[in-house]
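Subgroup meeting minutes
Present: P.N., E.W., G.H.
Scribe: E.W.

1. P.N. recapped why we're keeping a running log of single-chain structure predictions: easier to compare across weeks, and new members can see raw inputs and outputs side by side.
2. G.H. added today's entry (142 aa).
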Amino acid sequence: MVDSWATVADVTTYAKSTVDDAEVLRAQAVIDSYAGRIYADAAKVGDRDKYWLKLAVAYQAAWQAAQPDQFERQDITSTGGSQSTQGTGTWLTLAPHAAQALRRVSWLGSGSLHVRAPNEPVDLRREVYGDDGNDPGHWRPL
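Output recorded in log:
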């Protein structure tokens, strides 16, 4: 078993696809690059986010199994005189259901939730207008 947000059994359960550990590991790498978190930091991630990351990896692993050229594709917008359609920025590399799951991860959502850095103290009070502490109501430009 690989260290991943999802297991081979999760891929079978959620995506009804049969994959091996190597395919789950490849899907894990793709999801890690989009999520900005790695499995080694799992202790710092909440249960709800772990659930969405598990779904994202499971869907990605199943989708990648049907995309043998996924790591060789190019984003081409036109081919001669024929029409072409360009999808979203991730349409060539990220499974549609994995993208949905990633949108529900707290740090990739609306941005209104502060995710504490690993070395940031829990009791540090963050001010809306600034971090100087002298005048919390004073707005200062970035």
